[in-house]
Amino acid sequence: MKKVWLGSSWKMNKTNEEVGRYCQLIKPHLSNLSADLQTFLIPPFPYVKQVETALSETRCLAGVQNVGWASSGPYTGEVSVDMAKDIGASLVEIGHSERREWFGETDATVNKKVILSLNTGLRPLICVGDTADEKCWGVSAESIVRQVKIALHGVSAEQVTKVLIAYEPVWAIGEHGIPASTEEAEMGLAAIRSGLTTLYDSEIAQSVPLLYGGSVNIHNAKMLLRQPNIDGLFVGRTAWQPEGFARLIQLVTEVIEEQAYA
Ligand code: PGA
């Protein structure tokens, strides 16, 4: 069975104290995880080391929410891939729609960051998504496959097996988001899978974990995960409290068990 991925980015939330409490409360839920489940947490930069250290005995990876597109130099305020590695990150979230919308992230900078991350031994978690207008115009699949193709420009077949891709419809994210239906989520990830097959081959395309993100909650998590092209869930708000993340771990484990006996 393919590994199932479940993780959360905390975006720009939490204090030192809240991070400590979160880790303490979630730790018991991360012990004895199914061997088929890989979890991860992506805190703001200042807390990455704290999370990585607190959860080091569990199968929960720590990641960063962004990296600079250069490896070093006069880029005030940026954090490099080497620095991300130094603070204990093994994953790098790249191209989230909030970064694209507010901080000038483009497909080209996403590509630079993907290459740098892979060369540093970090796993990029590339986020792509269609806007509400693109959905309305019926070009969602074209838009997300285009983003994936540019993000992976120059990435070899060997390297791409270290990449994770999250389909996060812009219209589905956050407080005002409308959760994608299971069909819409599956359609987006099936389009990405087929784009990967064209770029590489079907075996490689199958080996790249494809995650869905955007208003994932305890009511839709299981249905989403049962879709053939959804290998994991990337969650915001529902996992910001340890109770929510714990509940999602439980639900995802139930789907893994269900599929193991199918
Ligand atoms: P949400 O965030 O689950 O709160 O909609 C998802 C995301 O931005 O990755």
Detailed description of the structure:
The protein has 262 residues and is of the alpha/beta class. It is globular. The model has no long low-confidence stretch (mean pLDDT 97). It has a single domain, classed as Aldolase class I (TIM Barrel, Alpha-Beta Barrel), CATH 3.20.20. It contains 12 helices and 8 strands. The protein has an 8-stranded parallel beta barrel with strand order 1-2-3-4-5-6-7-8, surrounded by 5 helices. Helix 1 runs parallel beside helix 12 and helix 7 (140-151) crosses helix 9. It has helices at residues 16-30, 48-54, 81-86, 97-102, 107-120, 132-137, 140-151, 157-160, 182-199, 202-207, 221-225, 242-260, and strands at residues 4-9, 37-42, 60-64, 91-94, 123-128, 164-167, 210-213, 232-235. Helix 1 links the parallel strand 1 and strand 2 (37-42). Pathway: Carbohydrate degradation; glycolysis; D-glyceraldehyde 3-phosphate from glycerone phosphate: step 1/1; Carbohydrate biosynthesis; gluconeogenesis. Its EC number is 5.3.1.1. GO terms for molecular function: triose-phosphate isomerase activity.
Structure characteristics:
TIM Barrel, eight-stranded parallel β-barrel, 15% strand, globular, 262 residues, binds 2-phosphoglycolic acid, alpha/beta
CATH superfamily descriptor: Aldolase class I
Query: Could you tell me the strand content as a percent range?
Result: 5-15%
Main sheet properties: 8 strands, parallel, barrel
N-C termini distance: 11 Å
Please tally the helical runs, counting DSSP H or I stretches of 4 or more residues.
12
Q: What percent of the residues sit in helical stretches (DSSP H or I)? A: 40-55%
CATH class: Alpha Beta
Number of E strands: 8
Bound molecules: 2-phosphoglycolic acid
Query: In the CATH classification, which architecture applies?
Result: Alpha-Beta Barrel
Please name the CATH topology.
TIM Barrel
Q: Element order, helices and strands?
A: EHEHEHEHHEHHHEHHEHEH
Q: SS-based structural class?
A: alpha/beta
Gyration radius (Cα, Å) is 17 Å
- Compute the number of structural domains: 1
- State the strand order across the main sheet: 1-2-3-4-5-6-7-8
- pLDDT averaged over residues: 97
Overall form: globular
